[in-house]
Structures are given as structure tokens and as C-alpha cells.
């Protein structure tokens, strides 16, 4: 799936680690990620968290897509910050999944908390490895 995700790749998101129901991805905040206030745009933080959830939810070998998500921004991320988003599967029930993702800076400070919901979709091409 990693090689096929043009959105994450184009934003500079890197897959660090993946396992059953979990994943870690990283992003170094660059100038292209900054908003008008000079901090990382919330859309990129959402994309980072959503990408972690995508890798974690597709780690079971069945195609899964987001069905909804919420994010809480807790502190800003700045130019040069190395952000890591860690997704953890909280529940699977039939075709539905629930994931929590924490986005942290290199010093461990929490930038955002994300809760996402997924749904497996029969008929979609299966996830492919890196």
C-alpha cells in the first residue's frame, strides 16, 4: 500500500513501522506544510494521522477505508519538527474498525489526538506491501 499512496508520498510522509492493527508514520515539517501563521497546517496533521490509520487498518490484508474521523489539535508543530503518528487499533467488529492515533514531536510533546473509524470494502483491490 505504501508505494501506491500518492497523497502521503507527495506530502513527504514516511512509513516507519507496521504490524497487525498498528502503524507508525513520520513527517518532517517543511515550508510547504506551513499555514499563514507559520505553523504546520492542520490538514497536514490530519493527513499524517489518517495515513497511520490507513496503514494500520490495512495491515490485516483486507482493504479498509476511512468511514469517519475526528482530530483534536493540542499544540502547534513548527518548521523542522519531526512528527511521528502512531495508530493503534482499538476494536474490530464485523467490517468496522476503530483506531486511535497520537501525533507527537521528536521531544514527545503531543500535537494532536485523532480517532478514526474504518470499514472494509469488498471488491476493492487488496492492499499491497511497500
From TrEMBL:
SUPFAM superfamilies: Thioesterase/thiol ester dehydrase-isomerase (SSF54637). InterPro entries: Acyl-CoA_thioesterase_PaaI, HotDog_dom_sf, PaaD, PAAI_dom, Thioestr_dom. Keywords: Hydrolase. Pfam families: 4HBT (PF03061). The keyword Hydrolase applies. One of its GO terms (molecular function) is acyl-CoA hydrolase activity. It comes from the Bacteria. Belongs to the thioesterase PaaI family. This is Hydroxyphenylacetyl-CoA thioesterase PaaI. It comes from Pseudonocardia bannensis. The lineage of its organism: Bacteria, Bacillati, Actinomycetota, Actinomycetes, Pseudonocardiales. The gene is paaI.
Amino acid at each position: 500500500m505504501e508505494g501506491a499512496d500518492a497523497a502521503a508520498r507527495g506530502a513527504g510522509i514516511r512509513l516507519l513501522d507496521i504490524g497487525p492493527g498498528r502503524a507508525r508514520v513520520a513527517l518532517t515539517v517543511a515550508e510547504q506544510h506551513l499555514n499563514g501563521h507559520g505553523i504546520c497546517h492542520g490538514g497536514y496533521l490530519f493527513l499524517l494521522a489518517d495515513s497511520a490509520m490507513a496503514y494500520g487498518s490495512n495491515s490485516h490484508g483486507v482493504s479498509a477505508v476511512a468511514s469517519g474521523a475526528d482530530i483534536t489539535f493540542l499544540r502547534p508543530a513548527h518548521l523542522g519538527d519531526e512528527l511521528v503518528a502512531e495508530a493503534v487499533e482499538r476494536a474490530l467488529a464485523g467490517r468496522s474498525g476503530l483506531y486511535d492515533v497520537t501525533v507527537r514531536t521528536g521531544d514527545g510533546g503531543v500535537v494532536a489526538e485523532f480517532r478514526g473509524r474504518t470499514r472494509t470494502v469488498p471488491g476493492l483491490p487488496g492492499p499491497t506491501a511497500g
